[in-house]
Specification:
Layout (H helix, E strand, L loop, with lengths): L30 H14 L10 H5 L5 E5 L5 H8 L5 E5 L3 H14 L4 E4 L3 H7 L6 E7 L17 H10 E11 L2 H11 L5 E3 L17 H8 L5 E7 L10 H5 L5
Parallel strand pairs: 1-2, 1-4, 2-3, 4-5
Antiparallel strand pairs: 5-7, 6-7
The structure holds S-adenosylmethionine (SAM).
The site of S-adenosylmethionine has 23 residues, from helix 5 and helix 8.
Length: 256
């Protein structure tokens, strides 16, 4: 029998980053998902190259772009993209069965304005996405890493927040959702303090779930456990200059 892992564009480079926000689970990888990789990856997939990506070429147009990190099974991304064809969608996920499922969904919908990476979002952002290239970033129900010793694995940390700010266009949006109270606290602590981001609901505030955000698999799981769900919405604002540059210095020839 062929090894399914060998047949898919699995681009996780092992052992080169100390702390990761995910562990690769051995989920059930079905023949339908394998077929999706074989047939639909060339249409919707972006192989991670580790070099700046020409997104206009990848999408065949220049349009505002939405990035969803850790889309899981992809139901929220599929739903949002189907009713928002004027913007391009980029999904990034490391869990192969989820990528396979979404590939099948995109094929059914004919959503040719969606592209997927099967890779670590941190590396995709660092190496493939240009600064200011994104209209919106979405992170729904990131792994909460409950145990104290695992908290360093949480995606929302100051360095990652600064990276997101760089990748958003001015006035672009960062939308997060979580059902884990203490992760919401961490999001506020980190993001409310990140230069270049403004919490749209005020400090430590949250917004109602927008009607277009489909309830996700992990959200339903949280709700069944009695968890409250919070949506957090931030806007990319100008980073104020702490020291104004005098006109004479700004126009001076830089030192060699
Ligand atoms: C708790 S699940 C939530 C999935 C989905 N958003 C939902 O709400 O059902 C978190 C997902 O993020 C993915 N993930 C975690 N860290 C990631 C990273 N650095 N790059 C890409 N995906 C990541 C995991 O594989 C997992 O599928």
């Amino acid at each position: 029998m062929s090894d399914p892992v060998a047949n898919k564009p699995f681009t996780i480079t092992p052992g080169h980053r100390a702390v990761r926000s995910f562990v690769l689970r051995q989920g059930r990888f079905t023949p339908a998902q394998q077929r999706a990789f074989d047939v639909l990856w060339p249409r919707f997939g972006l192989d991670y190259l580790g070099a700046p990506r020409d997104l206009d070429a990848a999408f065949g147009r220049n349009a505002p772009r939405v990035l969803e990190i850790g889309f899981g099974n992809g139901e929220a991304l599929r739903h949002a993209a189907a009713s928002d064809k004027d913007r391009d969608y980029i999904g990034v996920e490391v869990h192969a069965p989820g990528v396979g499922r979404l590939l099948n969904g995109l094929g059914e919908d004919g959503s040719d304005h969606v592209r997927l990476y099967h890779h670590d979002a941190m590396e995709v952002l660092q190496h493939e996405i240009a600064d200011g290239a994104l209209d919106e970033v979405r992170i729904y129900f990131p792994d909460p890493w409950h145990k104290k010793r695992h908290r360093k694995r949480r995606l929302i940390q100051p360095e990652f927040a600064a990276l997101l700010v760089r990748k958003l266009r001015p006035d672009g949006l960062l939308h997060l959702a979580t059902d884990w109270e203490r992760y919401a606290e961490q999001m506020w602590e980190v993001l409310d303090a990140t230069p270049g981001l403004r919490n749209q609901a005020g400090p430590r505030g949250h917004v109602p779930r927008p009607a277009w955000r489909l309830e996700t698999h992990f959200e339903r799981r949280g709700l069944k456990l009695g968890h409250g769900v919070r949506d957090l919405l931030y806007q990319r604002i100008g980073i104020p200059e702490t020291v104004p540059i005098p006109a004479s210095a700004a126009s001076a020839t830089p030192e060699p």
